[in-house]
Amino acid sequence: MKPHAGSTSDFIRGLGSVLLGTIGSRRGEGAEAALLGVDDAVAAAYEILGRAKGERRTVFALGNGGSQVVAQHVEMDLANRARMRARSFSSTPVVTALCNDHCHEEAYERLLGTQADRGDVLLAISSSGVSRNILAAARSGRRMGMRVITFSGFDADNPLRTAGDLNLWVDSHEYGLVELAHETLVHRLSDLCVAAEEAEQAAGAAAEANARVAEAHAAGSHAAGTQAILGAGARLNGHAARG
């Protein structure tokens, strides 16, 4: 694929244009059915990830080459910052053993078959949308009852674009732009999950602080009541002694 022929600023503007033109479609709709703009598409993807977080499901992110780097990045952010279960199957010995013993096309599919459960989430990433191992994983994930989100580019009718429950497609045939667009989209999703985790932690800390304040108030009221009773008893004893 030829590199971007214009200036660097043209490339950056092109990336912005590609990102803003991201199209999302849901399962059952044709590839040409542009149902969701970028904001709604990301919101729909985040809804799936947020549900996975709440249910303690695992998010699997898969790609080849540069797309696998994107997958590993989202795994890192979700596991480290959002405190979610996330995997990207980045073990070279395991993946190459499966490719050698079976075939490259089946490697990710076989790993999902042994590692994933119904209700888990799969992020299937392919710039071209025709990578056979990613397509096999996406289709297998759907059969297993996983919630599948695909990220693709290049041709509008690429097969990955209709393989998921939610499909995000960027309108470019340039690898660099497509990969950077996918990286930006998954980074945005990771940031939303991290923000949710931080809000959760802040709410938990506030609830704990309020509980401690309430306990302190209750303890203080109890102590004050005990002191009043003791004081009243002392006064009564004093009156009796004088009488």
From TrEMBL:
Sequence intervals crossing the membrane: none
Domain SIS: 45-200
MF terms in GO: carbohydrate derivative binding; isomerase activity
Protein's UniProt keywords contain Isomerase: yes
UniProt keyword Isomerase present: yes
Keywords: Isomerase
Enzyme Commission designation: 5.3.1.-
Top-level taxon: Bacteria
Leading EC class: isomerase
One Gene Ontology biological process: carbohydrate derivative metabolic process
UniProt-recorded name of the protein: Putative sugar isomerase
Organism of derivation: Phycisphaera mikurensis (strain NBRC 102666 / KCTC 22515 / FYK2301M01)
